[in-house]
TrEMBL record:
GO terms for molecular function: methyltransferase activity. This is Tocopherol O-methyltransferase. GO terms for biological process: methylation. Pfam families: Methyltransf_25. Keywords: Methyltransferase, Transferase. InterPro entries: Erg6_SMT_methyltransf, Methyltransf_25, SAM-dependent_MTases_sf. SUPFAM superfamilies: S-adenosyl-L-methionine-dependent methyltransferases (SSF53335). Residues 74-167 form the Methyltransferase domain.
């Protein structure tokens, strides 16, 4: 179901977060904890969103020590349209296997990789993360950017234990549960199953991984929802070519963005960066 959900969203993701080649589908990082004035120009807002999404990856790279932990053979698990995979390959020289369960995304990622001259550095693998097998391991690291909430965590860490070398890192950026209502707001729109940091740590420990780093960036990512809602409103206000179905979907998205932002600021959800090491 998740794979079909993201296959169906491909064109929408390109429209909101494109044009590429590095397209990201995750929140942005705002060091000042304040979003820029949103205005009513959809293209300008989209440019700001993309800038801050790249900022989130640069922040992740800093706290995860990407220059030595994410510069070798990397699994990008739940890669979306490959923005993160291209980032790790271009910025840190990583050889990346981009894992997706959305078949329609694989040729898009491969095309963007060729466009960047990274055909030999980024390859896609269509499979379920819980059944992950690779034939060219062991890997030096696995990265999951707002994708691990879709996985069965014990199964996922167990599979990673077979494909990562000793001492390898599992780097997770995710939305974590702090109270039930926050989980409902997140899960109902994105079809995911948020959990607590402790849930992750216990699943990792059982598979032979240790939680070694935890960074909370909830406040610094909250402004993303203001910008995301502003983009949606700008499209609704200015695009006269939208169909009735498209308008309805955008209004639902606008309400969801506003609800996420409210829950983020109220403390119902936590955005965190975790790093685990294989023992």
């Amino acid at each position: 179901m998740v794979g079909q959900y993201y296959d169906d969203k491909t064109a929408k993701l390109v429209r909101k977060y494109g044009p590429g080649p590095r397209i990201h589908y995750h929140v942005g990082y705002y060091p000042s904890s304040e979003a820029p004035p949103p205005g009513n120009d959809a293209d300008a807002i989209r440019g700001s969103i993309r800038l801050h999404q790249e900022g989130l990856l640069r922040y992740a790279a800093k706290i995860w020590g990407a220059e030595h932990r994410l510069s070798g053979k990397v699994l990008d698990v739940g890669c979306g349209l490959g923005g993160g995979s291209l980032f790790w390959a271009q910025e840190y020289g990583a050889d990346v296997t981009s894992v997706t369960n959305a078949p329609e995304h694989a040729p898009v990622v491969n095309g963007f990789a060729r466009e960047c001259g990274l055909g030999g550095k980024v390859r896609t693998l269509v499979c379920d993360a819980n059944r992950l097998t690779v034939d060219d391991g062991p890997y030096d690291a696995a990265v999951a950017i707002e994708s691990s909430g879709y996985f069965n965590r014990p199964q996922w860490f167990e599979r990673l234990s077979h494909v990562l070398r000793p001492g390898a890192s599992v780097c997770v950026e995710e939305v974590f549960l702090t109270r039930p209502h926050g989980a409902d707001v997140w899960a109902e729109y994105f079809y995911t199953k948020p959990a607590t940091v402790r849930d992750y740590a216990e699943a990792a420990e059982a598979a032979g991984f240790e939680l070694v780093d935890e960074v909370d960036a909830t406040a610094e990512t909250a402004p993303f929802w203001e910008e995301s809602a502003a983009w949606t409103k700008a499209v609704l206000d200015n695009d006269s070519g939208l169909s009735a179905v498209e308008r309805r979907q955008l209004r639902i998205s606008l309400l969801a963005n506003q609800a996420q932002g409210a829950e983020w600021r109220a403390g119902g959800l936590q955005l965190g960066f975790l790093r685990f090491e294989k023992k």
